[in-house]
């Protein structure tokens, strides 16, 4: 049975590029504020957080902030990596894709999932390099893995294996701590 995480006052996310914490405060409902590190959700009482509408609103707020963070931090890193490899990216888009971390079209357009902010930096870089390698090899042939290994210090398969412990959802992210998951 898969147990779905519920946002509670004890829920927090803490990654290099994204944080979430909850604080009880005298507010009329629930309010989220963004700062340099992430989001603080203020709530008047824990009962309010139990509402399905509030749970959905929190997820939507997290996704909006994550999208912004990917555009601010990961897109420039991707373009810098592309320049170092002398590769040309025609466009970069940030999607809410949950089935994949990124993709690359035959026209040189790269899509990045907003959920990349939940990954450790070395795995973000792996995904960025993976998609850039598709600009050279539009498949997962042995030649693709050889080229990816060239920029991943021979560790592309180990990084791919490490990626399997993460998934693209705020509701099931492993670094989320929640003592009241149910």
Characterise this structure.
The protein is of the alpha/beta class and 182 residues long. It has helices at 46-49, 52-84, 121-133, 142-151, 156-163; strands at 13-14, 19-24, 30-34, 38-43, 91-95, 102-104, 109-113. Strand 6 and strand 7 form a beta hairpin. Helix 2 (52-84) crosses helix 3 (121-133).
Summary keywords:
Zincin-like; 182 residues; elongated; single chain; alpha/beta; three-stranded mixed β-sheet
Spell the H/E element sequence: EEEEHHEEEHHH
Gross CATH architecture: 2-Layer Sandwich
Tell me the overall shape.
elongated
| Number of spatially distinct domains | 1
The unreliable regions are: 172-182
**Helical content class:** 25-40%
Q: Total number of β-strand segments?
A: 7
Topology-level CATH name: Zincin-like
Radius of gyration: 18 Å
Strand order of the largest sheet: 1-2-4-3
Task: Characterize the biggest β-sheet.
Answer: 4 strands, mixed
Number of helices: 5
How far apart are the termini?
A: 11 Å
Beta-strand residue percentage: 15-25%
Tell me the layout of helices and strands.
Blueprint: E1 13-14, E2 19-24, E3 30-34, E4 38-43, H1 46-49, H2 52-84, E5 91-95, E6 102-104, E7 109-113, H3 121-133, H4 142-151, H5 156-163
Write a concise synopsis of the structure shown.
By secondary structure, the chain is α/β, with parallel strands linked by helices. It has helices at 46-49, 52-84, 121-133, 142-151, 156-163, and strands at 13-14, 19-24, 30-34, 38-43, 91-95, 102-104, 109-113.
């Amino acid at each position: 049975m898969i147990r779905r995480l519920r946002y509670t006052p004890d829920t927090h996310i803490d990654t290099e590029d994204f944080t979430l914490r909850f604080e009880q405060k005298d507010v009329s409902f629930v309010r989220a504020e963004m700062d340099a590190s992430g989001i603080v959700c203020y709530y008047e009482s824990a009962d309010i957080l139990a509402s399905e509408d509030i749970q959905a609103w929190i997820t939507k707020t997290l996704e909006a902030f994550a999208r912004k963070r990917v555009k601010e931090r990961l897109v420039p890193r991707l373009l810098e990596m592309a320049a170092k490899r002398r590769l040309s990216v025609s466009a970069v888009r940030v999607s809410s894709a949950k089935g994949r971390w990124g993709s690359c079209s035959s026209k040189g357009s790269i899509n990045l999932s907003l959920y990349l902010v939940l990954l450790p930096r070395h795995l973000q870089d792996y995904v960025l390099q993976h998609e850039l390698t598709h600009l050279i090899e539009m498949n997962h042939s042995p030649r693709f893995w050889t080229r990816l290994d060239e920029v991943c210090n021979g560790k592309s398969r180990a990084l791919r294996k490490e990626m399997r412990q993460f998934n693209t959802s705020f509701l099931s992210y492993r670094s989320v701590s929640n003592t009241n998951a149910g």
